[in-house]
From TrEMBL:
All copies of domain 2TM, residue ranges: 15-74
InterPro entries: 2TM_dom
One Pfam family it belongs to: 2TM
Naturally occurring in which organism (per UniProt): Ramlibacter pinisoli
Record-annotated membrane-spanning stretches: 23-42, 54-74
Alphabetical keyword list: Membrane, Transmembrane, Transmembrane helix
This protein's name: 2TM domain-containing protein
Amino acid sequence: MPERRLTPDEIDRLARKRAGAKLGWYIHATVYVLVNLVMLGMSHHGFGTRPWSVFPVLGWGLGLVLHGVSVFVLGRGSGVREYLVRRERERLERENSGPSP
């Protein structure tokens, strides 16, 4: 089945959505680095006897990685997400074109 071509308005809307998602990740990564640098400094210069800052770095880092996967891998309009959308669309079309009750 040939894929439908996008209109210029749809292309613009999709481009803005994807750019916004990427910008959101860049902001997330910047805040992650800045906050964790502050926590690292606090951890090593008087706020506790052990380096406790590794725990928030790892936890938040996992969240940042998952956010990046959702933006750059699953959200780019091809690959896994497009494959799943195409399969679901085909399944729904088959169900919808079946015999009427």
